[in-house]
Structures are given as C-alpha cells and as structure tokens.
Amino acid sequence: MLTMSDAIIELDELRRTFIVRARTGGLRRVAREVHAVDGISARIDAGEAVGYIGANGAGKSTTIKMLTGILVPSGGRVRTCGYEPVPQRRTLAREIGVVFGQRSQLWWDLPLRESFDILAAIHRLPAARARPRIEQLIEGLELQAFLSTPVRQLSLGERMRGEVAAALVHRPRLLILDEPTIGLDMISKERLRQFLITERAEEGTTLLLTTHDMSDIERLCERVLVVDHGKLAYDGTLRGLSRRVALQRVLVVDLAEPQPGLEVPSAVNVGTELNGARQSFSFAPDQTTAAMVLAEVSAVAEVRDLTLTEPAIEDIVRTLYHQSIES
Amino acid sequence: MAELVSPPTTDLVTKRESYAILLASRLRAQMTYRSSFWINTVNSFFTGVLEFVETYVLLTNTPTLGGLNFAQASLVFGLANLGWSIADLIFGQTDTIPRYIREGKLEAFLIRPMPLLAQMITADFQLRRVGRAFLGLLIAVIVLFWVHLDFNAATIYLLITTPLYGAAIYGALFVLAGGLQFWIVDGSEFTNSFVYGGSYAGHLPGSALLLPLRVLFTFVFPVTATAYVPCLIMLGMDGPSWLPAWLGWLPPVFAGWTWLLAAVVWRRGVRHYTGAGG
C-alpha cells in the first residue's frame, strides 16, 4: 500500500473554539472565545504508540472528540483512519475503539459478559468471529472472575479492564485511551499495561493515549505529543523529551534517626524535613535506578520508609513553555 | 507489520439480525431479574390504571364530553391509550437524553457504528413498559364490548390501524421532544409537558378542545388523528368545525408529516450536539 494510507491520524492546523459566556456582575454577560485547540498539526502512522500529554484543560479531550467524530472542528483538517470523522462517524466507528477513563460504555445493570455480546451485535460481528475474540480478551485481561457480576458492582480496576476489552471487541485499527489508569492501583495499572503491550504486538493496533502518569508513557509509547494551551509544545521521542526536560524522579526516605542533610553519589538532596528525619533525593532514571539511590542512602543511614514520585506533567509542560520563550 | 485492510463488511451480519440479537439480549437480561421485572411491569400497569381512573371520573361527571357519551369517549381513550403505550414502549427512552448527555453516555453511543436512535431503542429497551402497553390493549378490548359499533369492513380496518398509526404519531412526538433536548439539556420538563400534554389532548374527544388547540393538535401535532377522528367514522358522526370526519382516513398522512418533523428536529439536534460539544 502507498504511504498515504499508512497514516492513521492526520491533523492539519486543527482548531476548535468555544464561546464561553460569563456573567460579569449585574446583568451584563460577556462572550469570550476560548481556543481549546489552536492549530495542531501532527501525523500518526499505523502501528505507532503515541502518548498525548498536557495539563488539565490543555486541549487533549477536545482533540480526541474531534478525532472520533463527536465534535466538529472550527478550523483545519482532521482525518482518522482516512475518514472525515464527523460526516463519516459511523463508518469510522468500525475502525476505532475508545476508552474514556471517566465514563463508561458498559451496561451498568448487566453482567460484564453481556456488554461484550451487545457490543458485538452493535458492530454486527458474526458469532463465529466475535466469540473467539471475546474469549481472547477475557483471558488477556483476566476477566473470568467477575464476568457474571453486574458492572456497577465492579471495582474501578476491574471495570477499567472491562472497558478496554469492550473497546477492542471489534478489533479496531486505532485504540484511543483517555486517562485509562486514573485512580488505579499499581497492580491494576501494570496488568493493563502488560495487556496493551501484548495486544499491540499481536494485532498491530495503533495506540493514542492521554495520561497524567509518566510511567504509562514510559511503558507503552515510543512517541510523545505535549499539548499546552491548545498548541503542540513537543512532538518526538520520550528520550528526546527527557533530553530537553529533566524527567527527574524523587525518592523520599523516612529515616530511623534525624540526620543532617545526607549526600549520596548518584542523586541530589533536594530537601530535608522533620529536622532531617525525612529527606528527598532527586535522580535521573536514565542514569541511575531508584534501587541504587536507596542502597547509597541505606549505607549511611537506616531507612524506615520510602516513597517514589514521578515527574508531574504540569512541571514538564512548564519547563517546555519557558524554554520556548527563551529560545 | 499488521495488515491495514479494514475487516470486510461483507461477512457482517445483516442490520436486521443485529437489531434482533440486541433486542433478544436485552430481553434476556431483563428477564434474569424476574422479581424486579414483575414489580416494574405491575408498577407501569397501575400507572396506566391511575390515568384511566382520572378520565373515568371526568367522564362519569359529565354525561357527554364534546358530543360523545361515556362509552364513545372511552373508545377514544382506549385507542389513543393503546397507541401511546406502544410508542412509549419503543421510544420512551428518548426522554432520558439529558441524563445521557450529563453522564457522558451519549459520547459512548456516538462512537458506535449504529444510528443513535436505533441504539436507544434496542440497546436500552425497557421491557417493563410492556405493562403499560398491555393495559392499553385491555382497556381497548373492554371498551369494544361496551360501545355499540357496526362491525363492517371499514370499522375493522380502522380498529386495527388506528392504534398502529397512533403509535407512529406518538413515537414521532417522543423523537421530536428528544431532538429538542439536545438544545435545552435542562428542559426535560418542558419537553415532557409537550409529549405528555400532547398525549392527553389525544386521549380526549377533539371536539372538547378549544378551536385553536383543536387546530394545533390536528394540523401541527396531529394527536387527534391517533383516536378521535377515526372514531368519528366508526361511530358514524360528523366532526366539529375544522375537524371533518373524513380526516379519519388520513392517519398515514398525519404520521408521515409528524415523522418528517421529528426527523428534521432530531438530526439538527444531533448536529447541534456535535457542534457544541459536551
């Protein structure tokens, strides 16, 4: 096939403006234009896995709504799987699977299994094709234990795995996940990521993922798009991003005895609290490991407890923003 | 590299099969909770009974209503009620659109390859409304033994088709009101009063309505065509002014008009939603 058909997502100067009417005291109302998406151009090819990150309100959800045909763009061009999303919404729906982390597309009163059968019917899949696929998803996402439980009784982690299965019943070419790991515990997150890696390897599904969790991106995506105030602030590899922005992690340790500020070889002490009973060490994960830093701290003081913090997306975006002003 | 070819559409099941599978699955699911199904069905049955009692009280206190005696007015009520309850069974979910919008469920509907309305009818089919429809049928049959009708071919034709066209007309009003809710998300009270008020007018003899209302509920929202006007023919009566009895042959035309109106409003409503966003 020619290269043109390899593009799963094409955005060309995509824009979306909302009119927000705000009351400004008294009876006057002022209409204000909000540029939720302000000229984004990007191209995502078949088989890519792309993280789409940005602060809250940066324009991520608006972009996804335009990609899926839920929202008409105010300007520019969007093509998803070669289709124009809004006019060809139902044709496009056969090619994409969408998981909105905050919303459900499952039937709340029904056993989880029932939702998959209903979706297969909505997608008009013959039983011979739908059944094995559903079984495969049940196994891959380990859903057996709660298949006959009504969806409203599932835990968040169980429900989210169900949502992902629901989005994949019809084997979409493009899977869009909007905050799929929000609120999940570590084990559920890891299970979901592991499944997505296997699924992509087997089916070649293109993945677009929005998240607040940088480790989702590290585990799943080769490429990152950073959006800020409706504009693309970065488009490239995760490694490239970490070269421009220090994706520092911080290891916070609680010590058995208060200590003066400790110095270790592979990390920087970025703060002491509680008279030195709690100390924070910042390190670059591509140069050392959390275990290494912990070992170095343990060598000089007794560690009672620890937490590890991820770089916040808001910080990354802020750094990129200041860099672009300086350059 | 995975294949880029989309799954061939030729081996998909037909649309009709797909709807049938959906409906069957919804029915099966709702029958799983037997007791809750029966409670809901009985509940919806008695809601209908209550409405009938209201009309009964009205009718027993007025010897004639709009020129019809008690039995004749009950025939109008019975036929209109049967049509309305069938429409409610099929299209009743459309009045929950504001809730769908608020809960973000509408977006889940929009990312599926089935028309929105078809999804609402099949994927959210509420079997409990069967109770209401059953009551409608029961009342219509009881009234038939009571009112004196000349059972010729025309009467039998009208008896069978009137509830069906009635269902079509009320169904279109449901869809019309649903379409309006895309604009006025918090306006379900307004649209409900529109659907339920319209249905109330349809259950009464059209002659009992004030002239402007009579015209409105015949030539714009033709609820008088769901029972009253065909009843005029069956009862061999002339209609009041602006409502000649021969209009009783035209429910198909009225149904077509209402669906045209409903389709325009519904489409524009969906388009408005995708333009404005959630």
UniProtKB/TrEMBL annotation, chain B:
Decide whether keyword Membrane is in the record: yes
Q: What are the protein's UniProt keywords?
A: Membrane, Transmembrane, Transmembrane helix
User: Which InterPro entries is this protein grouped with?
Assistant: ABC-2_transporter-like
- Transmembrane region positions? 37-58, 70-91, 130-149, 155-176, 215-237, 243-266
Which Pfam families does this entry report, sorted A to Z?
A: ABC2_membrane_6
- For this entry, the protein name equals ABC transporter permease
Q: Which organism is it from?
A: Microlunatus endophyticus
